[in-house]
Amino acid sequence: MDDELRERVEREAEKHALLNAVKYESDADVGAVMGPLMGENPDFRPHGDEIPGVVGGVVARVNDLSTEAKRDRLEDLAPEELAEIEAEDEEDEHDLPDLPNVDDYDEVRMRAAPNPNGPWHIGHARMPAVIGTYKERYDGSFVVRFDDTDPETKRPDLDAYDAILDDIDYLGFEPDDVIVASDRLETYYEHARDLIDAGGAYTCSCSGETFSELKNSGEACPHREKDPETIREEFEAMVDGEYDSGEMVLRVRTDIEHKNPALRDWVAFRMIDTPHPREEAAEYRCWPMLDFQSGVDDHLTGVTHIIRGIDLQDSAKRQRFVYDYFDWEYPEVIHWGHVQVDAYDVKLSTSTLKEKIEAGDLDGWDDPRAPTLKSLRRRGIRGEAVVEALIGLGTSTSNVDLSMSSIYAANRELVDDDAERYFLVRDGERFDVEGGPDAGHPPIHPDHEDRGERTIPAAGGVVLEPGDVPAAGERVWLKGYACVRRERDGASAIGADSETLVATDDDIDVVRDGDVDVVHWAPAEDNIDVQMRTPDGDVTGVAEPDFAETTVDDVVQFERVGFARVDEHGSEESVVYWTHP
């Protein structure tokens, strides 16, 4: 091997050694280097007996470098290969797959298109969670478009527009643009006129039943061959509100013999007699169907990628007919399955929730029994915890189950460090205490001794939860206080259960040895009445006196009960909302 060849071998070996070390964040391995080295350089093969010795020396030198020095050297030798490794590492960090064909667009632009008929339930949060995450990954744009062009069957709720934007803010995202479809009727009319001029639409006065029979048999509607002037006149009469509901529609001309009947000459506009609840749109009677309105808006607002339910696959197929007439490029489409959420008895349905609220079965959208974002927010669950759990579902076309435990786990990591500890005793049983100190002093937070201790008075007696009460003669450890034994009353051998707890001389070893359980407690006299609202119903109890020092919106941990958000401190009781275990 001459000097020139040796230099080439060393240079190539160094590159592959660095690639191996950086990719796997470890020392390079001679065997791992030899394969790609010889594969990329077939002219090295005649010197196969000498090359391992050269590679061994190069690998040793590379392994002597620091991690940062290895990366810097690789950036000098093979910047493109380093970029590929870093891209792979970045991709591995994502629960969501890469969006398709992002390099074909100057900017990734995605939209959430809610129907504003009420605040969002948990399932609704998946779309903004995913879109907001993609926006951050690609430095793209997030559009919120209120699809409110059905003032009758999916009648908008005037409060829902702001409520949904509040929900998006709670999740941690801010839309770049907010669009209201009912403000854009004239835009849809103009595109309908252009579609008519292109021969892509016709007016039809068939009854729904009649057209359905024709469509299913693959027969053309008799109105399909109307002259263009008549179509234009009848559409303008629709716009002017001269027809009643069901009397006239505008259809997109597709393929009347298409193998999928749902795509045959579908309705683009129909008449609705019910006025829109928004004053700005109340005078309109000719309304676009969602597939037409949404398709036009996606193009005009520059949407590049659409995520929609797997059950809406026909929407893209319908819209492509319109796009073909206008010679538009259709956005990339990702279809996903539905989300099902455990832990709730209430259906994930805005209309169902609204009915229950109106009937008084739920107190409102933020009732802890409601599977809504407003409920989670009032319970002290942070939006980023909801996003993390939803992102973990990916974008599978299969239906997926969201376990509330995944939201709880994510939120626990966010709140645990700041949540001060308190005792809450539910349905407490009262006991006198003898022989112990006047107060207990458990830590404010077990992981932060510097935060100090609480003071819980015990001289006036204590209360324990029924499941924590020891049998006569048995011991328990009152956390932050001492070990106590329940006394017996009476002179009989069996005796009666006493309402007195006597402090013992036991030390903490009895707990470590597993002989004595540790329980929480509260003072019998100097305590705070608490109502805790939970998804399973309201619970009452008493808390230690220091709990009164908390402020509204604090998230605390009631030890052995769970986390809770402070909702209010009243003159007679405090109200908290249970967060999670």
Structure, briefly:
This protein is of the alpha/beta class. Helix content is 34%, strand content 21%.
Features:
seven-stranded mixed β-sheet, single chain, flat, 581 residues, alpha/beta
Secondary structure: helix percent: 25-40%
- Characterize the largest beta sheet: strand count, sense, and whether it forms a barrel: 7 strands, mixed
Strand order of the biggest β-sheet? 12-25-26-27-23-24-13
- Give the mean pLDDT: 92
Name the poorly predicted regions.
491-495
User: What's the N-to-C terminus distance?
Assistant: 70 Å
Number of helices: 17
* Class from secondary-structure proportions: alpha/beta
Number of strands: 27
Rg, nearest Å: 34 Å
Strand content: 15-25%
The gross shape turns out to be: flat
Q: Could you characterize what this model shows?
A:
The chain is of the alpha/beta class and 581 residues long. 34% of the residues lie in helices and 21% in strands. The chain is built from 17 helices and 27 strands. It has a 7-stranded mixed sheet with strand order 12-25-26-27-23-24-13. It has a 7-stranded mixed sheet with strand order 21-18-19-20-14-17-22, with no helix packed on it. Strands 4-5-6-7 form a 4-stranded antiparallel sheet. Helix 8 (185-197) runs antiparallel to helix 10 and helix 11 crosses helix 12 (313-326). The longest helix is centred in the N-terminal third of the chain and has 22 residues, at 3-24. 37% of the residues are buried. The model is unreliable at 491-495 (pLDDT under 50).
